[in-house]
Design a protein that fits this description.
- Helix content is 48%, strand content 3%.
- It has 416 residues and is an all-alpha fold.
- The strands form two sheets. Strands 1-4 form a two-stranded parallel ribbon. Strands 2-3 form a two-stranded antiparallel sheet.
- α3 crosses α4, α6 packs parallel to α9 and α9 runs antiparallel to α10.
- The longest helix is centred in the last third of the chain and has 22 residues.
């Protein structure tokens, strides 16, 4: 590390710098796990130096954060429907691929149409509201970290209190009633996939640092809520069912459980989950040629292959925090993260036909952050070439550019 960069990392300035980018407020890494804390600090330093390559992404983040400031904090009480428990504080949703049976007068029991989203499943439940909570907290947390703009922290804290902490409006720490199916079940383990970003919520709140908006009492209350939820996840019938799933659901269960263990300081438990995952998830789900057979069976095969690989990559990121090397792991017959990425990588080219006719076209730009994340841990000429080719013209303001800045020559510096 050169002298100039060392000075940037050592400084401890609280006020935002000119241009709306927060200067480094301390030499401590933010306590986040789904992304590299060092990468976030490096991004903030590059922005403070006037790095023009990252400015579009920061500008878009600030626009998103300004929009999030106008959002009324959602609550589980907002939904018109209610879980079978009768308690509106219980999270409730419907299975998205289930439809009324047209051969039955009352449509019951519902029947499954894989990949065919029933719009009615998204109405009047907690699903969309929780997505809004997650998206808003991630946006506001990152925006506060990069800019130091206090209103972002204030509103993030308000959203978290309403959804999680307020005893009158907060969600109970369980998903007993997630993805119910009319005529079949009042809730199921598969519904736990809807809470897969809880660890990222904790990361977003950690990015508020020592802001007075998120108090020590708030942190303690959220830690208690998280601990109660993790206990439910590991001991409930729904949690056990999801843990036993063999496709993306099982992978995302591991992401959620390991991430929350790290948040709560249970590093040995996270290490256990992620060590077992090398066999139970990575080796079991990836073929030597990189195919993911269980995801390829789906009617949205490319979409689900990307979805599972995103979860596997998160396991790898969390493994780095827990002392388990997923990036370098390879079975004797060649099953590895690199193999799975290499199989999908050519389809970053929108002109290259996916070998299966999917029900819905996947967003191939989702490969770009996977390229960047992989290159942050392993150099690979083939992946780098594809990344440079397609990232140069695709989504210049995409948020992943702030999270996974690929090593490059020193970017141009703006002088004022």
């Amino acid at each position: 590390m050169n002298l100039r960069r060392s000075l940037l990392f050592a400084c401890a300035v609280i006020a935002p710098c000119l241009g709306g980018v927060a200067t480094l407020r301390s030499a401590e890494n933010p306590r986040v796990f789904a992304v590299s804390p060092q990468a976030l600090i490096e991004t903030r330093a590059r922005l403070a130096r006037g790095d023009t390559t990252l400015q579009p992404a920061l500008d878009q983040l600030r626009k998103d954060a300004d929009a999030a400031l106008r959002i009324k904090p959602p609550s589980v009480l907002d939904k018109p429907s209610v879980a079978a428990s009768g308690d509106k504080r219980d999270y409730f949703s419907y299975g998205p691929y289930w439809w009324p049976d047209p051969t039955k007068p009352d449509g019951l029991p519902y029947i499954r149409r894989d990949g065919d989203l029933n719009p009615a499943s998204k109405k009047g439940t907690d699903d969309a509201a929780f997505d809004l909570v997650v998206d808003s907290l991630q946006t506001l947390g990152l925006a506060y970290f990069f800019t130091g703009h206090e209103p972002y922290a204030i509103h993030a804290a308000r959203i978290a209190r309403v959804w999680f902490l307020d005893p009158s409006t907060g969600m109970k720490p369980n998903l007993d009633h997630a993805q119910a199916i009319p005529g079949i079940t009042k809730g199921r383990g598969i519904g736990i996939i809807e809470s897969r970003d809880l660890g990222r919520v904790a990361d977003a709140l950690a990015l508020l640092g020592k802001s007075a908006a998120w108090t020590d009492a708030d942190r303690a209350a959220f830690t208690a809520w998280t601990g109660n939820y993790l206990h439910w996840l590991r001991t409930s019938p729904n949690g056990t069912d999801e843990q036993d799933e063999l496709n993306n659901h099982g992978t995302w269960y591991d992401v959620q459980a390991a991430h929350l263990c790290l948040v709560l300081g249970e590093k040995s438990e996270a290490r256990k989950i992620l060590t077992q995952g090398l066999t139970l998830r990575l080796a079991a789900q990836i073929e030597p040629d990189g195919r993911q057979p269980r995801e390829l069976l789906r009617t949205k095969s490319l979409d689900y292959s990307l979805f599972n690989l995103e979860a596997l990559f998160l396991c790898a990121q969390l493994g780095g925090e827990a002392g388990v090397d997923w990036w370098g792991y390879q079975t004797a017959d060649g099953r590895s993260l690199r193999a799975a990425l290499a199989y999908l990588a050519p389809y970053a080219d929108p002109a290259k036909a996916w070998p299966k006719k999917d029900l819905v076209e996947a967003d191939r730009a989702r490969l770009l952050p996977l390229f960047a994340q992989y290159l942050a841990h392993r150099d690979d000429p083939t992946i780098r070439e594809l990344h440079e080719k397609f990232s140069a013209t695709t989504e210049p303001a995409a948020r992943w550019r702030l999270l996974w800045p690929v090593a490059r020559e020193e970017a141009p510096v703006v002088t004022h």
